[in-house]
């Protein structure tokens, strides 16, 4: 599968949401809506690349961005200033260095970010139960994202 590219991201900035701070301000503010993903393009390294900053109403740079989280999809979205992209985070499962020994048959199968059961069993777990698995991880590159709509609050020049 091919990875998402900036040309696969649709940006909408309504006239009233562009250059909110006005010409006299040192920084400007824009609110943008972005749509990406179709279930066939995969998440790329360094996040979902965004189109050029001019599409968002900026001329020099975007210094700061906030993402309004999409409700209910289980992911956390963050603006990456360095790569001008949206990073997607999901719950990860990290195991220790000690092997499971003879316990590999017990426990429920885990589910991946696409909602499919993986071949990994979490030892001593019960099916259809939620557990605290630790910190979030960046979405693996092989995952194809469904259509996602996000709102961004961007500050720049």
Helix content: under 10%
Categorize the overall geometry. Answer: elongated
Structural class: mainly beta
Placed side by side, the strands forming the largest sheet appear as 1-2-10-4
Q: Gap between N and C termini, in Å?
A: 36 Å
Q: Major sheet, described briefly?
A: 4 strands, antiparallel
- Total helical segments: 0
How would you describe this structure to a colleague?
The structure is a single chain. With 157 residues, the protein is mostly beta strands. It has two domains: 6-92 and 135-156, no CATH class; 98-134, no CATH class. Helix content is 0%, strand content 35%. It has strands spanning 10-12, 28-36, 48-49, 62-68, 76-80, 85-91, 108-111, 117-122, 136-138, 148-156. The strands form three sheets. The chain has a four-stranded antiparallel β-sheet, with no helix packed on it.
Write the layout of secondary structure elements.
Layout: E1 10-12, E2 28-36, E3 48-49, E4 62-68, E5 76-80, E6 85-91, E7 108-111, E8 117-122, E9 136-138, E10 148-156
Antiparallel strand pairs: 1-2, 2-10, 3-6, 4-10, 5-6, 6-9, 7-8
């Amino acid at each position: 599968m091919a990875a998402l590219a900036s040309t696969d991201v649709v940006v909408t900035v309504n006239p009233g949401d562009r250059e909110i701070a006005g010409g006299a301000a040192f920084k400007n503010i824009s609110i943008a809506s972005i749509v990406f993903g179709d279930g066939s393009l995969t998440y790329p390294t360094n996040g979902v690349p965004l189109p050029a900053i001019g599409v968002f109403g900026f001329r020099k740079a975007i210094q700061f961005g906030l993402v309004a989280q999409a409700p209910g999809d289980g992911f956390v979205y963050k603006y990456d200033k360095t790569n001008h992209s949206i990073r997607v985070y999901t719950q990860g499962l990290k195991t220790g260095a000690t092997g499971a020994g003879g316990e590999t048959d017990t426990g429920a199968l885990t589910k991946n970010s696409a909602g499919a059961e993986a071949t990994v069993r979490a030892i001593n777990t019960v099916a259809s139960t939620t557990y605290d698995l630790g910190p979030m991880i960046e979405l693996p590159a092989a995952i194809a994202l469904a259509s996602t709509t996000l709102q961004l609050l961007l500050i720049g020049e």
